[in-house]
């Protein structure tokens, strides 16, 4: 599928070490390279948490198209996500820096638009990562509240209580990122083990104990109860359930400055985590759909999470359902920790290039802990404010998911488009990194990626239910639009005057 460029040839024109590469693009090594390919791969696995996230978001697809909507959308989404990961991995292999997408755009875009294109990409990526991390914390917090509902029928849940659970998860994740930073690589390995072991345990339990639906229910029986009159549009709105569980693999590139041999290892972590999680996701999806029982009961479960009802129906035990559900909730907490790690590094790199207000203050790296403590705190604060959306909107969780998709997918789309137009046609063989796809295959995967990304971006803005009310409106486009307007105002007034465009062009790599 892809070829590995001969290391001897690469070193003729490229820096010979990670630190030298970083120095040649204008930065010094400030973060410790504590991550191995295994710990970074585990971080990506747990940040994506595909089968666990699928459990949390199946309601949308079951509402808009039933079991076939979830299964076939997931299958297509995995194939297209592998194409995206390959496309981004090839670029990351050339430019392995913590800035990721905005660094790549800076390297690939024409000089006349370089600063603006890089800054916009970075701003979108930062916003997307903030919301993606918030979505994992939302899932964990609301699931903790749901576990109380599962075990205590007299409990009357309130949204403000869900908000407190959400905040508790965020504060825990921030604290681990600050005071437990040295342990994060090991913690990620343990979380990766739980991710695999939990999958096997739940799969075996459902296989042995749950009543089974017919194959026609899983693969052919379409059920649209969303209110959308057009089944095709409803089906595409259901993409949210299959796209969201496959977000976050770009975390590998944002930790490129904390990983040895980043040009080789970052693409491996990205593509490998998508492939492994995709396989686990399909297997889990099939078992879950065969074990659902009646959709009416699932979609009206008092917990708000159909997977908890599936576990309860299968085990006939609140304790058993609680233990199974906790595996998913703990992984969501681990995903929040990983998300804050990735988001803080991206935003720190952005501040290092003087792209945000008070950049000098927030680009600081604690000399004792060797992490950007101030940036960890900074990215946690807006995530906490996002929780207030939940107080006034009954579909706030879906809106958060949609915002994550909008931000992340847009930040994936922009560098791939630039690579198609300005990178692939112009780069010589020796200018690629360790991971290089054959030209025809690479271009084909780039085009598939762009088509899929644009399709999903459009339908991520659609409301899940019809008719639309103030309570169930999808406010993702409003929030993301506000984020862009706010950033645009800052960039025009102040940012464009001080933003230092990353020096990630051919000259930085000694390319003649």
Automatic annotation (TrEMBL):
Keyword Transcription regulation applies: no
Annotated membrane topology: Multi-pass membrane protein
UniProt subcellular location: Membrane
Keywords (A to Z) from UniProt: Membrane, Transmembrane, Transmembrane helix, Transport
Alphabetical list of InterPro entries matching this protein: AA/rel_permease1
MF annotations from Gene Ontology: transmembrane transporter activity
Superkingdom of origin: Eukaryota
One GO cellular component, as annotated: membrane
Keyword Metal-binding: no
Transmembrane segments annotated in the record for this chain: 37-58, 70-95, 163-181, 193-212, 232-256, 268-290, 326-350, 371-391, 397-421, 441-462, 474-493
The name this protein goes by in its record: Amino acid permease/ SLC12A domain-containing protein
Taxonomy of the source species: Eukaryota, Fungi, Dikarya, Ascomycota, Pezizomycotina
């Amino acid at each position: 599928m892809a070829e590995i460029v001969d290391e001897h040839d690469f070193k003729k024109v490229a820096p010979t070490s990670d630190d030298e590469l970083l120095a040649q693009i204008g930065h010094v090594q400030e973060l410790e390279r504590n991550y191995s390919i295994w710990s970074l791969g585990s971080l990506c696995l747990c940040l994506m948490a595909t089968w666990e996230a699928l459990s949390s978001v199946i309601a949308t697809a079951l509402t808009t198209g039933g079991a076939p909507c979830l299964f076939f959308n997931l299958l297509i989404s995995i194939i297209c996500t592998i194409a995206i990961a390959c496309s981004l991995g090839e670029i990351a292999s050339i430019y392995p820096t913590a800035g990721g997408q905005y660094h790549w755009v800076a390297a690939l875009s024409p000089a006349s638009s370089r600063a603006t294109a890089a800054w916009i990409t970075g701003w979108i990526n930062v916003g997307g990562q903030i919301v993606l991390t918030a979505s994992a914390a939302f899932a964990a917090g609301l699931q903790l509240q749901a576990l109380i509902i599962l075990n205590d029928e007299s409990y009357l849940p309130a949204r403000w209580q869900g908000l407190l659970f959400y905040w508790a998860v965020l504060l825990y994740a921030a604290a681990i990122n600050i005071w437990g930073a040295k342990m994060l690589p090991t913690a990620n390995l343990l979380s990766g083990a739980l991710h695999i072991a939990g999958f096997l345990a739940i799969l075996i339990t459902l296989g042995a104990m749950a009543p089974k639906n017919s194959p026609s229910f899983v693969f052919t029986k379409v059920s649209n109860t969303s209110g959308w009159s057009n089944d095709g549009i409803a089906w595409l709105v259901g993409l949210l359930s299959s796209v969201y569980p496959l977000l976050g693999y770009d975390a590998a590139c944002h930790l490129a400055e904390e990983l040895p041999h980043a040009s080789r290892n970052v693409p491996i972590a990205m593509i490998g985590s998508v492939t492994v999680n995709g396989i686990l996701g399909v297997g889990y999806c099939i078992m879950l759909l065969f074990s659902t029982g009646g959709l009416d009961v699932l979609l009206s479960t008092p917990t708000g999470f159909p997977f908890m009802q599936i576990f309860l129906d299968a085990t006939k035990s609140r304790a058993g359902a609680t233990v199974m559900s906790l595996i998913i909730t703990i992984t969501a907490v681990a995903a929040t920790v990983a998300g804050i790690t990735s988001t803080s590094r991206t935003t720190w790199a952005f501040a290092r290039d003087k792209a945000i207000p008070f950049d000098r203050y927030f680009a600081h790296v604690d000399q004792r802990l060797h992490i950007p403590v101030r940036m960890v705190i900074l990215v946690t604060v807006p995530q906490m404010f996002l929780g207030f959306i939940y107080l006034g909107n009954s579909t706030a969780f879906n809106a958060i998911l949609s915002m994550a998709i909008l931000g992340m997918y847009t930040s994936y789309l922009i560098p791939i488009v630039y690579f198609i137009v300005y990178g692939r046609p112009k780069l010589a063989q020796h200018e690629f990194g360790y991971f290089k796809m054959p030209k025809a295959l690479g271009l084909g995967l780039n085009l598939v990626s762009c088509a899929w990304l644009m399709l999903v971006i459009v339908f991520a803005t659609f409301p899940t239910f019809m008719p639309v009310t103030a309570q169930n409106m999808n406010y993702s486009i409003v929030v993301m639009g506000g984020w862009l307007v706010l950033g645009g105002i800052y960039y025009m007034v102040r940012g464009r005057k001080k933003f230092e465009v990353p020096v990630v062009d051919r000259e930085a790599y000694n390319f003649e």
